[in-house]
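Q: Hi! First time doing this. I have a protein sequence and I read that you can turn it into a structure. Is that right? Here it is:
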Amino acid sequence: MRAVQVGQAGGPLELVEREIPQPNAGEVRIKVQACGICHSDSITQMGLFPGIAYPRVPGHEVAGVIDAMGPEVTGWTLGERAGVGWHGGHCGICDSCRRGDFVTCIKLRIPGISYDGGYADYMVAPAHALARIPEELAAVDAGPLLCAGITTFNSLRHSGAKAGDLVAVLGIGGLGHLGVQFAAKMGFHTVAIARGRDKEPLAKKLGAQIYVDSQSQDPGAELQKLGGAKVILATVTNAAAMAAVLGGLGINGKLVIVGAAGEPMEISALPLIMGRRSIQGWPAGSSIDSQDTMNFAVQQAVRPMIEEYPLERAAEGYARMMSGAARFRAVLTTGQ
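A: Yes, that's right. Below is the predicted 3D structure, encoded as structure tokens:
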């Protein structure tokens, strides 16, 4: 089979030939049809997590069909459509797992980091990490929903906001363009915040009722004019931009962070205390959350905006994603 691997930390993405992997007990083999290229794939390419075994095939936004099953796999059939996202397996015995909170497992397995991922014709994954893909959803759309989609959908539905509440989405990029769609379809009074007036038409098309240009307007002040946000979903990777919107939270408002900023965020404790405001991070979710995300996307016509690249152009797609030029999710296709 073809696979795109990273030979060592900091090394390039290389197209190689490998033996087709065989599933062990409790595992399935997926014939990959599409795999999203996510910024988190840089963890593998740059060696940002300790203990990554190289060479490693990246990719944790995998959509395909079950091609083979190992012993002790139940509930799945050959030829069934299935995907795997950030949650690529859990230990089942730690405190988080015993409470059913699999995505915070202390031994969380991540495709493309813990084991070979979806930049390939085939990959193997634990059966308990699989999510069923609705027939109405194309594989190239399913891939990004298994990371960017579940992250925004799951964080919003657990944020405490109710239909009609003011919810703002900071950033209209790979995460934000999905966050705006999900927020609008969930019935929130949706505000999109981004840099420049040129993004306003897209924000409105995605479902935002109001657009705030953070270059020419104070986003915190604008949100307060609307009564203060119940939730601000921060999808950007800029700590200063996150701090700048904190003033827009209403009483009991919450800043939910899903974009990983590399630098610390400076905040004042007093507004948090006086208004019972809070800041919360949110990981993606487990396999059933991925399934919920895709089902909701089908029901409410939410789709990622994608650029497609054949597997042999993975390095090109990865470079475009890392440059920020992709609009908005880059997706590899295998032609299968």
